[in-house]
Amino acid sequence: MQKYEIFINPKLLNKLDKDIWTNEHVPAVLKIGSNQYSIGLVYRGNVIRKKRKKSYHIIFEKPYTVNGAHEIHLNAEFNDCSLSRNKLSLDFFDRIGVISPHSNHVLLYINGFCKGIYLELESFDQFLLQKRNLPLGSIIYATNYHANFSLLNPEKQLKTKLVEGYTIKYGDKKDLSHLENFIIITNTLSNEEFEQQIPQVLDIQKYLTWLAGVVCTQNFDGFIHNYALYQNSETGTYEITPWDYDGTWGRDLHGKPLDYDYIPITGYNTLTGRLLHSPDFKEKYRDILSTILDKDFTVETQLGAIDDLFQGVKPYLHLDPYIKINAKNLGREKEFILNFIQKRNTFLKQELIKLS
């Protein structure tokens, strides 16, 4: 496991601790092997900022990019007793053909003190697009639960702005206008008009593949949060990518067990509801999900990935001062995840029959 060392003025670290909600980066140095980089450092996330083991957002300042990235995320994975659900999920999406941030576990030290095992994640931004040889295009983050593709917020009140819940990561204000148009198409057209026009603004195949991924991994927040929209400048259509998938594979975001049948096969947001109302789109979704359930979301397929992840973190568990996980705990969690996959797979195959 790669060792990451951060060196920071204790006064600046104190400053972050006094205001955990600040988004203002403070200067620090990151050492990886024999290489040193000037960085900006700040805490990231929402619930995790209140925990003892916090997550970090890092921007590279000198040099401006490292390995093709300008920024990275170091996730604490504090509520995940396997430390691996996020990576397992993102790798799963990558496997089924959905754009997904790459990730790897690292051992983090700050000013010489071990802070434990972290998951380094790519930032979903223009630099990721360049690394993947994808056309540049606007990237918009779904930053809260109002990002539900609806005219109404989750409290069933009319939104004051159609793009509530969204934040531009790469692009400008006109890109929000395009998103507004997308939401209007989703909510105001007749069924026939919607079926004709939606393929012009949304990559249907990739959206339904993403939907199948969220449904399989059972991310409760994934339908109205924990995603980003990327508008491919060559096709003009939106694609969607997952983000923050630690509350998956049988547990919620707090690490508590979630029944295998908790999330319906159709998910829940306005866009999905409209798509699955169309017999053609519904049949396409059935085909996509059926293939994934046969080839990708199976105990046999995921067993190797789980073993690799657990074997990777196991030798370093004792170095993490914030967790109480040992090899026996990991063994139990492996069986928990495999049991979830088996039950969820069976449940979804049964639901596929009803979906026809």
UniProtKB/TrEMBL annotation:
Record's keyword terms, sorted: Capsid protein, Virion
Record Pfam families: CotH (PF08757)
Protein name per its UniProtKB record: Spore coat protein H
Organism encoding this protein: Neobacillus bataviensis LMG 21833
